[in-house]
């Protein structure tokens, strides 16, 4: 895969080139994707920051001895959890060294940190290593045994790290689990939301290309995160089946056929209520049960719907009531399980808030198929264009009346600093060169190029037959890059502002009239071979190719704000979840 260290790219704003045949002007538009008042807190990633140091009372000795316990991979484990900075933390031993990690039902790996010269790229400088390692625990890249797996770059919601895969003995909850493969995070561009601490990932099943998950290397069948009593929170791992519950049992979906890299613990959403009103969505929605998320994570299109509802309702019922969220999950026996996002500051948890709603960036393991899960099929208000000629040409929809949706298409490869793509606008009639209402630019996977405000205008208009090159300038070293456009090999037009975002962005075109389609002439190549053809992204496998086939669901992440005061138990064999 491409070097992700070069990925200082646009995500917080949508930069587009537009030619509006109504005005006959060529415009460069820089439009904020999400604009919120100060009353809404925005996270750049799935997890809130855990960057502050842990309390001294909970500090770890980096060379502490191993916990006692009999060797058995089939014993039940019950581990007391500690709340810190928006997450629940568990202690464990690797090779006799003590670590603390975020209990995360939304990720698959056991990941620990190293500390040294490369930490200056992360949340803290290298000078903080002694304090950091006393708090979280630190590994060496030479500890344990080589796993035989090559290093990978793991992408978090707000950062990334080079990971070296090692084997070592795991002890957890006083039980010797045995040797496991784990990841030691080495060169770090950003640790994302947890400030560099370890992850105790509890998603069990994966696709073949993904590294071994923690739970697949054990004999544990069920896991239970018990947050019913503040100060007595626990994580239990058991080889036994899920016990009977009086509350409804939620069947869990397998999203891997739709492109997900792992089998998330996800339930089917049958209702989504914002401010007491049902929010209607044209497709299916699946909710990932994710203890590594603070509140609620929504894809950008759904977040915009949430934002519009709360803005409209706030003057009528107040801001707090307008931000109320309730999720209804399908349960067995035709029942429904309601889960509400707890609101306000929680006194028992340092007066922290868990009612944080975030716009999601792309998750780790993103592929062309997985894109449908996190962006929906066609973005809201647009129609995916039909692909022709091996995927190099996309055909615009027939604009029969003013109510027709604009056509939308994205390339399959993202754009990094120093890279560009080029397209040719195709006429509706081979003999006619007419003005086109078209947007050409860069956007996150599944997002639209939208808005016509805050524009920088220049002379000229786009017509059928024109070529448009769009790309990112080289990163000057401060993590920013400028978007630029060149029309018909003419002068370069630069975006008015530099952009800095951890999100992957893709060549994107929208056609609202005048043009019959768009041809992708060139795009970034992972292999660097000029002979490798550029292609528009195919419709993901899970998306309806013929009428009647089910669409892939849109994915949301339900975090601790939905789990406080509850015990969530998951059976990884029967694939069920229960709450009490």
How much of the polypeptide forms β-strand, as a percent range?
Answer: 35-45%
The CATH topology of the domain at 4-33 and 378-522 turns out to be Jelly Rolls
The CATH architecture category of the domain at 4-33 and 378-522 equals Sandwich
Total strand count, please?
A: 39
Helix content: under 10%
Shape descriptor: globular
User: What's the gyration radius in Å?
Assistant: 25 Å
Report low-confidence residues grouped into runs of 5 or more: 1-73, 118-126, 189-196, 363-376, 451-459, 526-531, 540-549
Mean pLDDT across residues: 75
How far apart the termini lie comes to 43 Å
- Number of helix segments? 5
Task: Name the CATH superfamily classification of the domain at 4-33 and 378-522.
Answer: SPRY domain
Q: What's the CATH class of the domain at 4-33 and 378-522, please?
A: Mainly Beta
Structural class: mainly beta
């Amino acid at each position: 895969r491409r070097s992700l260290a070069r990925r200082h790219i646009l995500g917080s704003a949508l930069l587009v080139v537009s030619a509006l045949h109504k005005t006959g002007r060529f415009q460069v538009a820089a439009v904020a994707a999400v604009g919120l008042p100060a009353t809404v807190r925005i996270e750049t990633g799935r997890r809130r920051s855990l960057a502050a140091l842990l309390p001294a009372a909970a500090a770890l000795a980096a060379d502490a001895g191993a916990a006692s316990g009999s060797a058995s991979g089939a014993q039940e484990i019950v581990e007391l959890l500690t709340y810190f900075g928006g997450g629940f933390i568990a202690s464990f031993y690797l090779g006799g060294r003590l670590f603390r990690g975020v209990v995360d039902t939304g990720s698959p790996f056991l990941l620990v940190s190293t500390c040294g010269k490369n930490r200056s790229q992360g949340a803290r400088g290298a000078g903080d290593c002694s304090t950091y390692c006393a708090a979280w625990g630190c590994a060496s890249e030479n500890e344990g045994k080589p796993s035989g797996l090559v290093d990978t770059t793991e992408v978090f919601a707000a950062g990334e790290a080079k990971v070296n895969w090692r084997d070592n003995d795991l002890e957890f909850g006083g039980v010797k689990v045995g040797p496991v493969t784990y990841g030691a995070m080495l060169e770090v561009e950003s640790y994302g939301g947890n400030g560099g601490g370890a992850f105790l990932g509890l998603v069990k099943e994966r696709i073949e290309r993904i590294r071994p998950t923690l739970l697949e290397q054990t004999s544990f069948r069920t896991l239970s995160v018990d947050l019913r009593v503040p100060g007595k929170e626990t994580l239990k791992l058991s080889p036994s089946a899920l016990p009977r519950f009086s509350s409804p049992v939620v069947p869990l979906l397998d999203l891997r056929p739709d492109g997900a890299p792992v089998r998330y613990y996800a339930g089917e959403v049958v209702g989504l209520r914002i401010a007491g009103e049902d929010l209607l969505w044209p497709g299916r929605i699946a909710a990932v049960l994710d203890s590594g998320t603070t509140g609620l994570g929504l894809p950008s299109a759904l977040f915009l719907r949430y934002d519009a509802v709360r803005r409209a309702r706030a003057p009528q019922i107040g801001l707090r009531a307008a931000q109320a969220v309730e999720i209804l999950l399908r349960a067995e026996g035709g029942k429904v399980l309601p889960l509400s996002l707890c609101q306000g500051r929680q006194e028992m948890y340092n007066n922290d808030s868990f009612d944080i709603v975030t716009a999601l960036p792309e998750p780790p393991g993103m592929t062309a198929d997985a894109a449908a899960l996190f962006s929906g099929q066609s973005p809201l208000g647009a129609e995916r264009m039909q692909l022709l000629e091996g995927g190099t040409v996309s055909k615009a929809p027939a604009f029969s009346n003013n109510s027709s949706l604009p056509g939308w298409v994205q390339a399959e490869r993202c754009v990094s600093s120093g890279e560009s793509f080029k397209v040719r606008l195709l006429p509706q009639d081979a003999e006619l060169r007419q003005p086109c209402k078209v947007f050409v630019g860069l956007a996150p996977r599944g997002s639209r190029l939208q808005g016509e405000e805050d524009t920088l205008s220049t002379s000229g208009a786009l017509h059928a037959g024109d070529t448009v090159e769009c790309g990112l300038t080289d990163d000057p070293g401060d993590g920013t890059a400028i978007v630029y456009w060149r029309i018909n090999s003419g002068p370069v037009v630069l975006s008015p502002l530099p952009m800095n975002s951890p999100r992957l962005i893709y060549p994107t075109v929208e056609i609202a009239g005048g043009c019959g389609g768009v041809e992708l002439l060139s795009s970034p190549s992972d292999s660097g071979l000029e002979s490798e053809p550029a292609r528009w992204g195919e419709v993901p496998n899970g998306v309806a190719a013929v009428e009647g086939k089910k669409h892939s669901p849109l994915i949301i992440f339900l975090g601790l704000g939905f789990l406080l005061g509850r015990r969530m138990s998951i059976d990884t064999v029967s694939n069920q979840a229960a709450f009490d």
